Amino acid sequence: MNTRTQNGFTPVDQDLYAKAFQLLDPDPIPEPAAPAALAAPAQVPLTTAAPVRLTGPVEKTLTDALAFLDTHGWARYSLVHPEGARCSIGALRAAAGARNAAYRDAGNLLLDEARRQHGKKWETIPSWNDSHSGAQVRSVWEAAIRRAHHMNI
What we know:
Distance between the termini: 61 Å
Order of helices and strands: HHHHHH
Number of strands: 0
Structural class: mainly alpha
Largest sheet: none
Mean pLDDT: 83
């Protein structure tokens, strides 16, 4: 029956309405029983766990490469120094293990950061690496790692 009421709404069959909700939620959470007059509300500890953040492959590659430089030393004019030190690109290769996507993206981010700090003229990581001091190179590495972290890559 489509009889209109004064408010403009069609009346709803309450049994049909209840059955529809029963189909949508067949096992509803039971209503809590009325608490006793003297019972105190249950204390539920509110614990919030810190969100788990995984290190992305680019951030990991950059971090591992900088750790490699810290451990084995930084070099200029040579991919691998006879004593084990490496230039920036050599450290990236050692950290990545292969010329994979993380290696490529880490290198692009490192070179982009080098250009931000030292001018747009740098075409390659080796040319930039060989033209700067250890402190300048480290500053670029650290900034690139921070950017990878903030970009979650």
